[in-house]
Amino acid sequence: MPEPAPTQPPGTSPDTAARQRWMAVLARAGLAELRARLEDAPPLPPHTRLRGPETGLVMLRGRAGGDGAAFNLSEMTVTRCSVRLEDGPAGQAHLGHAYVAGRDRAQAELAAVLDAALLDPARRPALLAAVIEPLARAQASAAEAEARKAAATRVQFFTMATMR
């Protein structure tokens, strides 16, 4: 089954939608997955840390029934990092940012470096092909397998009207 095209939120440019997609893929990928995919990718340039990596908490919000009033559901540990690559054309700097679930500082830093490298038009095609697309396919496959597993245990309830 072909993967549906990602929908672009209203008021965003195609570049913004593409960046949102690769940042989501990087945030869901584990450190081991990122390192494994980088073996097939061109080498990443050196970077400078601007912030972090640092770990903190974010508040998760929920909605009753998906559309009710918002409420504070729980807190979640996240790690964030911001980096700068300065080897772009004419000394142009690319800033990369990442937020990942959990406390893995190396994962957050590597995701931020990849985000910055993907902002460079010269590097983007190779990194998309070697890192982002394979990770996105693997994540979609895992989500589909989880959905099939959940559907297999779904109970179909029905009611019969009694005749009087």
UniProtKB/TrEMBL annotation:
In alphabetical order, the GO MF annotations are: lyase activity
The transmembrane residues are none
Q: What keyword terms does UniProt attach to this protein?
A: Lyase
Q: Which GO terms describe its biological process?
A: organic phosphonate metabolic process; organic phosphonate transport
Checking Pfam families in the record gives: PhnG
Disulfide bond listed as a keyword: no
**What is the protein name stated in its UniProt record?**
Phosphonate C-P lyase system protein PhnG
